[in-house]
Sequence to fold (849 residues):
Amino acid sequence: MSDNEKPKLGLSVPLGVRRTVETGKVKQSFSHGRSNTVIVETKKARILRKPGDPAPAPEPEVEAAVEAPAPVAAPVAPRPQPAAPVPPARAMTPLERREQQERLLREAEEARMNALEEARRRQDNAAREATEEEKRRAEENRRAAEEAAANPPAEPVTAPAPEPEAAAETPLPAAEAGDEEAERRPGGEPPPRRFTPVIAPKRPEPPARPSRGRQGDDRRQSGKLTVTRALDDGDGGARARSLAALKRAREKDKRAHQAGGPTVKQVRDVVVPEAITVAELANRMAERTADLVKALFKMGTPVTSNQVIDQDTAELMVSEFGHNIRRVSESDVDIVTEVDVDPADTLQPRAPVVTIMGHVDHGKTSLLDALRGTDVAAGEAGGITQHIGAYVVTQKDGSKITFLDTPGHEAFSSMRARGADVTDIVVIVVAGDDGIRPQTIEAIQHTKAAEKPMIVAINKMDKPGSNAQRVREALLQYDVQVEEMGGDVQDVEVSATAKTGLDELIEKIQLQAELLELTANPDRAAEGVVIEAQLDKGRGPVATVLVRRGTLRTGDIFVVGAESGKVRALVDDKGKQVKTAGPSTPVEILGMSGVPSAADQLTVVENEARAREVASYRASVIQQKRTTSAPASLESMFSALRDKQAQQYPVVIKADAQGSVEAIVGSLNKISTDDIQVRILSAGVGGITESDVSLASASKAPIIGFNVRANAKAREIATRDGVALKYYDVIYDLLDEIRAAMAGQLGPEYFETVVGRAEIREVFSAGKHGKAAGLLVTEGYIRKALRARVTRDDVIIYTGAIASLRRFKDDVAEVRAGLECGVTLEGSIDIKAGDFLETFEVEERERTL
Fold:
C-alpha cells in the first residue's frame, strides 16, 4: 500500500495485529505489557484519500495534553459512504507496518516536546509576573508602615482590602489561557499577562525591622505565599496546636514553677554505727559524696570516699548538713548470744555431744562405724540412709548421744576461737600397737585448751602386739593420767573390728555426761552452730547445723553468719524430713541465701527485715576486715612483703618410721630462709603409693623416700606425670640435696664491687662519640673493660660501658688514682662537670643455703 492508499487517522483500519492508534491518539507499547496513550498535535494535516475525492475541511490543531491515567477508547465515527465503490485495501507488509508505527511515534514525541516547552514558557511568565506583583505589594506595605509610623492616626489602621478587580480575577485553566494567547499574540511570543496569586487574609503587620545590610530581606519575607497561609481557613491564621506542643508547653511551665519556688530540704534520721565509710554516710544522708569529702577537707581531715571515719566525725558531718543522728553500736545491730542466759527453771537435760579424735589409721573411722551400729533406731529403720557429718545414737534405755564426725583438729580450734565450742566430751582414739603419734598429741593439746573432759579409747586390742599399759605410760609425758595410773581421765580398751568394749565406752560417756549436768532450754528461739556447709547442685546451699538450745522449726527465719534465709526443710541424720529439731540435734537446713562458713552461729530472728539487717552488717564487717588489714608499721609491712615474696619448695615425704619423718620435717624447716621455704605437702609412714604421686603431681613437687620405695603402679604414674622420686638412706645426703635444689630454684647470686671512682672536671665535644669527659681519678682505678655508671647528687643518671680511655693522646687500658684521663661513654648522655664516674665489677656466685 502506497502513501496515497493509506487510510486516514480517524479510520478504524488496524495498524497491525492490535488496534494501537485511535482518532487523535497514539498508544505506546513498552516491555512487560506496559502501554501509554497520548494525544498528538497534528502540525500538518495528512489527508489520505483517493484521487478525485473532495478535500475535507481542515481540522483544528490539538494541543498535547497530559497523559491519561488509563487508555480509553474513543468512539469511532461512522464511515462516510463513498461515492464510488472502494476497492478492497491491500494488506500491509510487516515492514510497512513497522515504518508506519515508527513515524507515528516520532510525530507523537515531537508533539509532546513542543507542548512541554510551551507549558514551561507559560510557567516562567507566570512566575515572573507573580514575583513582580509580590515586590509591588511589599513596597506598598512598607510605604504604608512608614507613613503610619510618621503620622500615627487616631484610630488603628487596618490593612487595605484587596481590590475587587484583583479579587474577581480567577486564573484560567492552562489550556484555555493558552488558546486565548495563541489567538492574540501577533508573533510567536505570547504577550505578558497579569497573574494574581491566591492570598489568605493578612494578619496585623508586625513593625518594620531595620535592614541588616542586605536589600530586599523584609520585602522577600512579607509577601511570601506559604502552604500554611494558602490553606488558612480565614480565622486569623490560628491553628490547633499538636498534642506534643501542648505537652512541651506544660512541661516548660512546670519547670518554671519549680525553679521559681524555694526547695525545702528534707531532714533525715541518719543511723550512724561506730565506724562508717564516707560514701556510706553520704548515701544514708542522701547527699553527694563529693560534698562530704569537701566538708571534711575544710575541717582539716583529708579523706577519700572509701575511708572509714569514727562516730564523732560522722556526727559532725550529719549536723553540718542539717540531719538528725541516731547513734548505734555493734550490739544494737548484731546479735550477741553470750549475754542471753536462760533462767534456771526453763532448763531441761539434753544429750551430750561427743567428738572422736585421734591419729590417722588408728581406727577412728572404724570405731565410729561400730558405735553407729549400736543405734537401736538404726536397726529398726534399716540402717542409716544418709551421713551428714553428725548423727544421733539411741541406746537401749532411751538415752541419746550425738557424735560429730567432721570437725577435725583445725575445725575444732576454729570453733574454739569463734566461741562456738559445741563439743561436750572428747574421745581420743589411740592404737594399742602404734602408741602415741603427732596427731594424737595435737588432739590432746586441743582438748586441754578447750578445757573439755577426755576419754582415752585404746583401740586395736584384738591385734597381736597391742599393749594398753604402754599407751597409758606414754600418756604421762603429755600430762594425761588415766584412772588406773591415779589420774582422773577415763580410759577403755576397745576393738572396733571385734566390737568389744563398745558398751563400756558408752557407759563412760554417759557417766561423764551426768557429771557435766548438760541442760538447755528447748522453749525458745533456736540457736545453733554450723558443722559443715556445701552448695548442693539440686538443693542449693545446704548446712549441717547442731542445735545448741531452743527448737528449730520449719518456716523459721534465721541469720547464719553473713547469710540469712527461711527454713524450707529440715533433714535429720536418717535422711528423713522432720518438722522440729531440739537441743543437741544435728539437722540439715535448706533455704539459705548463700553458703555459710564452718562454726558460724545460727540464730532465729523475728522477721526477714531483721535477718537481712544483721546479715548485711556482718558482711560489711567482713569486707572491712578484708580491705583494711594493712600492716601496723613499716617493719611489719616489709616483713609481710618478704613473706609474700618468699618462694615455696613443696615436697612429699615418706619414711619407714614416724621418728624418721619427724626428724626429716624438722631438718627441712630449719634450712628454710626468707627467700625460700619448704612446704611439706604430706609426711607419712610407709611406701610411696599412687595417692602420694597424685598429690605431688598437682604441685610439681618431688617425693622423698627415706628407706622406702614406690610400688609398681606409683612408679608408672610418676613416669607418666613427670614426678621426681628421690630415695635416701642417710639423712645428711637428703638435706644436702634438698638444700642444693632449693638454691638452684632461687638461681645464682650477683655481687657488685666498686673498683674505681673519678670526678668529672671538664666536658668537651668528641665528634661522633658525642661528649668526652676529663676525669681526675680519686679512688681505685678506672679500667676500660669494666662497667661504669655516672652519678649526679648521688643519683644514677647513666649505666653503661667506657668506649675509650685516654691519657694525654695515648689509649690506655687503666688509670690509677691521682691521675687525670679522658673517657668517652657508649651512647650520648648529658654529663656535666661535677658529676662522678664509678667503675664496678659484677661477680656471679652460686647460691647456698
